[in-house]
Amino acid sequence: MALLRIVSLTIFACCLVSVSGQQVFQKALSLSEYEMVIEGELFLNTSIKTAEGNTEYQIVAPIELVFNRNDLIILSNSPNEYISLFRMTEPSMKLIIRGKNEASSDKKIMKGSETSAYRDGDVVINKQVNGFCSNNIEVDLIINDFRKQVEHNGQNLKFQLFIKCESTIGHQKNVTGRIRINNLVINDGVFLDVNIPYPSIYPDDITTEMTNSDQLMQSFTKHYFKNLPSISFNELASFLINPKGIGVFNFDGFWGSKNGQFTLSYNGNFRLKAGSVRKY
Predict the structure, then answer these.
(1) Which of 1, 40, 82, 135 lies in disulfide reach of 108, CB 3.0 to 4.6 Å?
(2) Contacts of 104 (CB under 8 A, 6+ apart)
(3) Contact indicator for 176, 201 with CB cutoff of 8 Å
């Protein structure tokens, strides 16, 4: 009973209710009752350039964004108070976008197109296809270098977008186009395979000094990904806290190797529908 009472008092202390204008929230992080989902669409154009050639993708994907309304309110009202709630770990803020199932289906489908031209030894391959394929899109929205952003940017925090789409070859629907391999043209049995890698450091850019020092690696990583697409925390948080109509969030950016052997650029937007919000 004594232990139960201590636990109850601890929970009560972490859940004091605060009022700011019309917003009522709990002074605690990630209470499950505040976990929400909102639906929408992602419109994404990407261009991948390597030493072997170029690949471009265009995607229209149904999505859902998972967020914690309570955390957003606390961070919006008082970044320093938000930081103070982290006891054992470094403060952070992360939202997740993922592909959404089709209506009345357990399949995740998205519309896309692929245009590529690259060389593999003496073989030159050109591909132009479009149609529907598996919706494996994932986007992590992260406030990078959180403490410094709060110290230097105050109310102008930015989410960086870490975008990934693993191979989509698993499910194909109404795919048309052609693949040309040297002088051979293939029109039948073509497939749409969207494969966008998660931002990571190009192997040739990693030095021995970096692998032996967490501090050097963290500093390099922050600089390496500084040009990734980003959006305003305030704009997105304001919409998610009090959603109305359709929220449109545009982005563009890139990342790549220092020697230019690999570059991945993005532009597009995601659109969220206020009427689709539900508990997670």
Answers:
(1) 135
(2) none
(3) no
